[in-house]
Structure formats: C-alpha cells, structure tokens
Amino acid sequence: MKNIVLLACLAVSGMFFSQNKTYELSSPKGKNKIKFELVNNAPKYAVSHGKTQVISPSDMGFLLKNNEDLSQNFEILKVENSTFDETWDQVWGEKKKIRNHYNQMVVKLQQKNQNKRKLDIQFRAYDDGVAFRYVYPNQNDKDSIFIMDEKTTFNLKEDGQAWWIPAYRENRYEYLYQKSPVSKLDTVHTPLTIESNSGLKLSFHEANLIDFASMTLVNTTGTQLKSDLVPWADGVKVRVKDSFTSSWRTIQIGEKAGDLIDSYLILNLNEPNKLGNPTYFKPYKYTGIWWGMHIGKYTFWESEKQGATTKNAFDYIDFTAKEGFHHMLIEGWNKGWTPQWYENHMHMFSFTKTADNFDIEKVVDYGNKKGVELIGYHETGSNLINYLKEIDAGFALYQKLGIHTVKIGHVGSKLNMKEWHHGQFGVNYFRYVLQKAAQYNLAVFYHEPIKDTGERRTYPNMLAREAARGQEYNAWSEGNPPSHVVILPFTRMLSGPMDYTPGVLDVEIKQGYPGKRIHGTTAQQLAMYVVFYSPIQMLADLPENYTGKPELQFLKDVPTDWDNTIVLNGEIGEYITTVRKDRNSNDWFLGSMTNEKSRDLSVSLSFLDKNARYEAQIYADAKGTSETVNPTAVAISKKIVKSTDVLQLHLGGSGGTAIRFKKL
Asked: What values do phi and psi take at 326, rounded to 5?
C-alpha cells in the first residue's frame, strides 16, 4: 500500500543560463549532494556527503560505433527538478514498509554537431546515497545503436580500503573477497564496498538493469574507477534499436558499516510490483537432496550412489514432514546428468524425462499426502539453446504437478559457451525466464546468475540467487575462511537475497571428503538464518545430523519473512549483529557472527517493545568453543529480558549466537 505521495516539478530552460552554470541537487535532509555542470561542453558530476567530498568531478557519457563520441560537445536544453515521497509495502522481504523519498534532477542535453544527438541524465539524491542513469530517447535513428564503451568515471576524492572480487573470471562471482586500497584495484564486480580514509562506508552498484550490459569497475589511475560494461562475444557492449535506458549507477553512503545494509536505495530505484501478490508463493524453509552430493555421499548422476531416487525422496519427505517443514528440493531428478556435468560442454539435460529409479509423479503424490511440496530444479549447464527449447514443457510439467518454485542453475564459465552471464545477452535471458516463470505460477531462485539489481520489487516471484561463493565450497574445496561470512553481508548481500544454503550442524563434515570442513561453529550456522537474508532458507545438512539435536528448534522457530530489520553493530570482515522482527508474530530474532577472533559484544535491547517482557531463547557457542575446539557444541539457555536491558554476547572464534525473543 502506498502512503502520502508528494510530487512537485520545476522546469528551467537552459537558455536563461550560461552553459557553465552549476546545478546542484540535495537529498531531502541535505545529507548528500550532487553537483552537475558542463566543462568545455562535456558533462561532469560530483558527489558530497555533508562537508566531505566523496566523488570529485567525473566524466559521463558513451562511445558509440565508429568512434562517435556521446560524451562531449553538449549544450543544456532544460533542467527539470522534482521531489517524491512514498511508503510502499513489500509483498515479502526484510522490511515490510519501505520509504522512497528522494529529490530528482533531469538534465536534458543535445549535441551541437550535425547529428544533434540528445541524451537525458537523471539524478536522484537520497539520504542514504545517490544514483544516476542515462536515457537516450528515440531520435528516429536509421541504424541500430551500438555502445562500444561507457565513459562514466567515479573519481574518489580519497583512497580507502576496498572489498572486491575479480571480474571476467571463469567462476563468475564465486570468489573469495580480497581487501586492498582502491588505488590497487584491477577490474572488479559490483557491489564494490569501500571504507574511505575519512571513515565513510560506500557501496558502488547498479539498479533496475534491463536490456543493458551489467557494469564492472576498473581502476584506471590513482583512485579513479571507470565503468566497464560487460561485452558481447564480438566486443560490442550494448546493442539496441531505437533508444536505451541504462541501469541506475548507485552509490550508497553510510557513516557506519551497518548503514549500507539498512539502505533500500537499490529496491527504491526499481519499478513497482507488476505481479500483485502471487498467492502461489509464501516465504519458507526447505530441506533437500543436495548436500549429500556435494560431500560425496551421493552422486548427481545415475549410479549406485544416485541421490535422486524415489526411495531417498520418500525418506527425505518423511523427515521433512516429521520436523514440521513443508518444502523439499531434489537435484538430479532428470535425465542428462553425467560425472562431467559441471564442465564446460553443451550438456543436453532433459527437463521432462526422469532419471532411472526416480518417479516424479509418485514422489509428488507422496509429498502431497505428507504436506510437503517439491521444489523444481533445472540445471541448464549454460546450454541455453537446449533449455529455451524445453522451457515451456518443463514449466508446464511443474504447473501440472502443483510445483510452485524452481531453482535454475547455470554451471559453466559462459552461456552457450560464448557469452558472459552478466553481459546484455545474460541480462535479457534471466529477465525473460523470470517473466516466463510467472506465466506458469512459478517463483524462481537462480544459481550461477546475473547479479541482483533489485528486480524482486517489480517481480516478487524473483526470490533469491547465489552470485557469490556459497556453502558448497566448504564440502570439496579448501573452504570459505572465517572472514568470508562476515564480509558477505556488507558486499554481495547489499544487492539482494542470497541462497547461501546455511544450517549445516555437522560443521566438521564427518561423512564428507577427508580434510574438508566448515570454518565456523554450529552456533554460527544458526546465526546465519538471521544475518543472511533470504525469503527461502535451506536446512542444508543431512537429516541424520538434525535428528535429536536441540538446536534444531531454532531452525523451526526462525522465520523467513520480516516486518523490520536493524543492524546493531558490525565491521566489514570482522563481525556483525542483526535483529529482525517476525512479520507474523511479535517475536524478534538476533544473529551475531564473528571472524576467527573471539569477541564479547554488548547489545542493547532497545529495539524491543518498551511495554513488554520477552523470553530470550539463546543458542550460543559453548564455553571454550571455536572453529578448532569443540565447534559443534551449542549452549542453550533462557532468560527474561526487557527493552532496557543490555545483553552480553560471547562469540567463540569463527562463532556466533542466535536468539529468539519471544514476547510474553
């Protein structure tokens, strides 16, 4: 529901002003300011936060085919200013009501040469950051438009520490974050998080990415970052017919690290909900035949250790129903899996034919009797030629069976072994599949995807995605170091929900590959359900590792749909404490996690209702517990608390604490 909407517009004709005039736009409370001007007929912008300059004058524009320069020789035709204020409801999310309050300035430019190309630049100033995008209006171009380069730069006024993953690598976004000065960066993916030398926390990303190439950032000189659009195989960055609208280039600005997480700028820059309230999806937790394949207990393909069999499915359904959960994922259920399925080949998966020893109709029927709905799975192997031929038949099968969620994987370094996952081809493909799924009443979560840019606001059947190095790396690689899980909330997760697949209680992976383990404690795995936001959360471990474990109760209690979210404390790569209020009860939940260092944190409970008492149900690292010492030991206790209390948390090395505050 939308609340008060205020709109005011002012159009200023450029002919009344010198072309050297500076135009300024401030956020509603004046926290952030954008300055625009033409310098020698070239557009420049700058950004400041309070008295601190964040971005010094920086370039804007594009280079088109045949070296046609769309970044200079401009004059200003008009500048339009407006303000906007609304409060809108998320169908599901980390916060129910989101305020969208900004001031906007649209600068309409036209080149002074023979072609007289027009280009509009839209700026928005929020109190939690700034954004701008380019709109190239239809100008009756005879030929298609080919963008060969984007000239946008971000000239950081000062250096700082950046947390980043490399772009243009085989494993897409699935890399460990590195930390280095901005001045030492190469080409990196967004979100790019920076702590400037002045202490400001910055996140560079993009929003509402439609029919355009995604943006990476390259360090060109000093502390200057430049947009580097992901190209097609032939080197063209973007190809359109008559007009184009870029994604929003976003800079979220915070004084504390948690301010970046508390920002909803990315969502606010997307279009309103186009699907209404999809009744076929409500947030949930799920189990699945998945972790067993990663640790080597089962195989994805047909073999003596085949994971996706009717018998195994029945057993997993029994466990899921017994413990009170209602959704279950089965990977490897269909034809096409081989031991080489993850290698770069044009694998030919079927999306309607079942694997030997698996009867999908019997499994679905058995699940229905037990109150457990299957989650569909489509692994494309990045062979989209094959997938798009079968997508309607695959989705129709799920619709016929009453399946309402599909996980879609895209293992492979390039789509069709040719195009980047995050180029214009991939952007359009992932959006097409999302819209196609909606036609079949299917909600989607992607693995090996294009990064999130907030489209879940427009299409609430877009649930979550991977787009980072997730839990499975702990099963068969050197694993994710302790700092990884306290970097993700301040980097990758600023873009949107992540399907990290938490909940592995057997962190030492006793049934797995020799020497492989999770570099954290069991209590930390519990805390992830609060710290890592997703409307769908997996209980990733094997059923036998949950049976009889008292900490399973927290996983039963913790919701996946929230009324409010607050980050209480945190430093990037060090620690974080997050609290969230359940959307469907008066309960609050807390998750706190640390890197390899043990920590004692004081947490004010002022977020609780001031007129109530709560039972704090605490799941913490047992005394002396750390990643290497008794990591599965969880101390469970209860105490009565109120909003004026301060809670003392002790986190073991690579540990965590999870708490349910039950209102009495």
From this structure: -130, 5
Indicate yes or no: pTM above 0.90.
yes
pLDDT (0 to 100) of residue 143: 85
| Terminal Cα-to-Cα distance of the chain (whole angstroms) | 30
In the chain, % of residues over pLDDT 90: 96
Q: How many residues does the chain have?
A: 664
Exposed e or buried b per residue across 502-512, where buried means at least 16 C-beta atoms within 10 angstroms of its C-beta: bbbbbbebeeb
CATH code, residues 477-496+516-535+550-664 = 3.20.20.70
What is the pLDDT, as a whole number, of residue 10? 42
CATH superfamily of 284-467: Aldolase class I (3.20.20.70)
Instruction: Kindly provide the residue ranges of all beta strands, DSSP E only, lying in 60-212, ordered along the sequence.
Output: 62-64, 68-70, 74-89, 97-111, 118-126, 129-136, 145-150, 153-156, 160-164, 178-181, 187-188, 192-196, 201-207
Rounded CA-CA distance 328/374 in Å is 5
Torsion sign, CA atoms 291, 297, 299, 302: negative
- Report yes or no: 499 and 445 within 8 Å, Cβ to Cβ: yes
Assess whether the region 284-467 and the region 477-496+516-535+550-664 belong to the same CATH fold: yes
Mark the ranges of the chain whose per-residue pLDDT is less than 70.
1-20
Res 18: pLDDT: 42
What pLDDT, on the 0 to 100 scale, is given for residue 20? Answer: 63
**Domain 6-268 falls in which CATH fold?**
Beta-galactosidase; Chain A, domain 5 (2.70.98)
What are the domain boundaries of the chain? 6-268, 284-467, 477-496+516-535+550-664
